[in-house]
From TrEMBL:
PANTHER family named in the record: UNCHARACTERIZED FAM3 (PTHR14592)
Organism whose genome encodes this protein: Saimiri boliviensis boliviensis
Lineage summary: Eukaryota, Metazoa, Chordata, Craniata, Vertebrata
A GO CC term attached to the entry: extracellular region
Keywords: Disulfide bond, Lectin, Secreted, Signal
One of the record's GO molecular function terms: carbohydrate binding
Protein name: FAM3 metabolism regulating signaling molecule C
Gene name tied to this protein: FAM3C
InterPro entries listed in its UniProt record: FAM3 (IPR039220), ILEI/PANDER_dom (IPR039477), ILEI_FAM3C (IPR039475)
Amino acid sequence: MRVAGAAKLVVAVAVFLLTFYVISQVFEIKMDASLGNLFARSAFDTAARSTKPPRYKCGISKACPEKHFAFKMASGAANVVGPKICLEDNVLMSGVKNNVGRGINVALANGKTGEVLDTKYFDMWGGDVAPFIEFLKAIQDGTIVLMGTYDDGATKLNDEARRLIAELGSTSITNLGFRDNWVFCGGKGIKTKSPFEQHIKNNKDTNKYEGWPEVVEMEGCIPQKQD
């Protein structure tokens, strides 16, 4: 009886040890697999982050060189979505900021620092052009001027207003018509015509929206004013 009992004990111990060994091997395999998956995910995430394209100021397509200000702007969309003006990653005017309106939207910035000086909009459909003219005359030399239309920016424009905008570097202002879309970046005291201007005519045959052309967008790098 004692021999039989001892034999049973030996068998039980052997079964226990075998079971423990099998469980430990399975657990080790699962741990290795889990760690392998963890390291694989980590490597994938690192690779994904390293291949993610960089973001530049205002969301423009490439970085500006030193001593230049990044800007991006868009005209309004019909009479529904207002224009947007961004300078140095700072949104100066937009519908979200609730500081845009029908007509010509204008943002002024310091040509040396890029600091915003003023933002205003002038209703060129139902408003008066006189305040706009006074505003244009008061702009100081060295000021960056960004403009974008919303709905209609031309009906109330007269020759004097168009001349003052042309002096800021615009070439399209003389042809800006009813419900045209237009964006422009120039400066007071500029010696040449600005390269930063987009204009699309209101044409019922090509309009994207009923009564309005498609949105015009523009981005670029404005040279910093030097002393």
